Amino acid sequence: MNVAVVMYDRINLISLANVLSFVKSFQKAKIKTCAFKPEIVDEYGLKITPEVSGESIYGADIIIIPDGIGALNLRHDEIFLSWIKSASNAKVKLGFDLGTLIFAGAGFLNNKSACIRGGYKNALSEYCDVSDTKVCESGDVISVSEWGDEIKAILAKILS
């Protein structure tokens, strides 16, 4: 199972680490960190390099977008969103907290529901219905407002 983990400027490294450490525990998962550009700067200025940059993410079975304050601006960046749309055929699109806004900006949440932490519900409501749950499954998009046992169980089911 091909898993693309999207990295972007001002990504939250704790969210990225949680995703990578959990997903890597499944042998079926072939994980690649992907970014639109060759170098990413996290929320605190740390520079990190993705495995793949600038290439289409077409062919990924699962695309995961971790949390990060950079998603607030990227949801309006048409060039970046075009790159995200190259993963439209992914069976599962998983957005962690603010990462969900990128899926919303790319149009993947039209006529669907999603969840996000409290202070950003208005931003998400521009695109879709907002759920008060911690995990919201809506078609091929799963949004997560808080990392916990519920999403771990869903991911384990998907990756097993």
From TrEMBL:
InterPro entries: Class_I_gatase-like
SUPFAM superfamilies for the chain: Class I glutamine amidotransferase-like
Protein name: DJ-1/PfpI domain-containing protein
Originating species: Campylobacter majalis
